[in-house]
C-alpha cells in the first residue's frame, strides 16, 4: 500500500513564492518518475512538471523559468518550488508518482496525492 500526501498550498500574492511537497509512504520498493499536475476551476487537469528517478526534469512552457521540481530520494519526497507566481497559477495541485511496491517489485503503479490548493491573488 502506498500513500502520497501533497502539502504546502496556500494563499500568496502575485509575484510571491510557494513550495509544495509530495511525500510518499508505505510499502515502497522504488519510486520512478514523479510529477505535478494542476486543475483550475472548469478546466481540465494540466501537467506541470516531471522529474525522473535520475533527476531529469521537464516543465510545461507556462512555468519554465519560474517553477523548479526536485526530489529527495532518501525521504521519498518531491517538491515544487514556485516563484514569480501569477493569478493564472491558481489551481489545485496534485502530485503523481510511479511506484513499485515491495510485494510486486516488477510492477509499476500510478499513485496520486489528494491535492493542495494554491491561490494567487492580491
Structure description:
The chain has 122 residues and is mainly beta. 0% of the residues lie in helices and 59% in strands. It is built from no helices and 11 strands. The chain has strands at 2-7, 10-12, 18-26, 28-39, 46-51, 57-59, 67-72, 77-82, 91-101, 108-112, 116-120. Strands 2, 4, 5, 6, 9, 10 and 11 form a 7-stranded mixed beta sheet that branches. Strands 1-3-8-7 form a 4-stranded antiparallel beta sheet, with no helix packed on it. A hairpin with a 6-residue loop joins strand 4 (28-39) and strand 5. The protein is elongated and about 50 Å long. The N and C termini lie far apart (41 Å). The mean pLDDT is 97.
What's a quick, concise take on this entry?
Helix content is 0%, strand content 59%. The protein has no helices and eleven strands.
Secondary structural class: mainly beta
Overall number of strands: 11
Helix content class: under 10%
Summarize the biggest pleated sheet. 7 strands, mixed
Mean pLDDT: 97
Could you tell me how far the N terminus lies from the C terminus, measured between alpha carbons in angstroms?
Answer: 41 Å
Low-confidence stretches: none
Query: What is the rounded Rg?
Result: 14 Å
- What's the total helix number? 0
C-alpha geometry: elongated
Instruction: Spell the H/E element sequence.
Output: EEEEEEEEEEE
